Amino acid sequence: LARDADRWVRQWVARNPALPQDQRILLARDDSAEVRRASARNPTCPYELLQELARDTSAWVRAAVAYHTRTRPDLLRSLALDTEPDVLSGVAANPHSPQSLLQRMVKSISADVRRGVILNPRASRRTLLPLLQDPYYLHRLLLVRNKALKDSDKWSLHEDPDPMVRFATFKWFADKFRQPVPRHACCNSLKSA
After folding, report:
1. What would the mean pLDDT of 18-36 be, rounded to a whole number?
2. Are 137 and 115 in contact (CB under 8 A)?
3. Which of the residues 10, 11, 19, 33 has the least number of beta carbons within 10 Å of its own beta carbon?
């Protein structure tokens, strides 16, 4: 199946984690960019192949490497020099990207790249703080629930120019400080009524 004439078949084979090494290499060098991208998205793709695919002519293939959880910081630094927003978004979202790299990406003109930093589970508070002033309301909305930020950081959004951001901020604080009603207390009050 790794040599099937239909590229869709080869794509599905390339994503299979149980694929033998010789077939991994074959599919990572396929003529079809979609098949090479599928190879780069394989969760068990070896690092050596990720390094090779990081130099692919297709931005979609390089982006798959940038998002891959096995991609190491040294390769992410190299991919951060790319000019394609899809690749840079992957670097920004990758939990292995160094904070110094993320702090540079916060200044990107691409909203997609900045969103990648916001969605990065390891982005630090210091990295995220400048994004509280991001011009795109959706980014500020996403930051309301970000666990890296302190309550005092989030409170600054209560006066945001966008009503959705203000609403999300007030709702987040209301949910956080609401006292849970014990189940038995609720049932007792219904019985006495």
Report:
1. 92
2. no
3. 33
In the chain, alpha helices (H): 7-14, 21-28, 33-41, 47-53, 59-67, 73-79, 85-93, 99-105, 111-119, 125-128, 137-143, 151-155, 163-177, 183-192
Taking CA 113 as the corner, what is the angle to CA 41 and CA 170, rounded to the nearest 5 degrees? 110
Radius of gyration of the chain (CA): 22
Give dist(CA 172, CA 65) in Å, integer: 35
93, two tokens = 């979202």
Quote the tokens at residue 146.
């970000």
Prediction pTM value:
0.84
DSSP three-state, residue 179? coil
* Separation of alpha carbons 54 and 186, rounded Å: 58
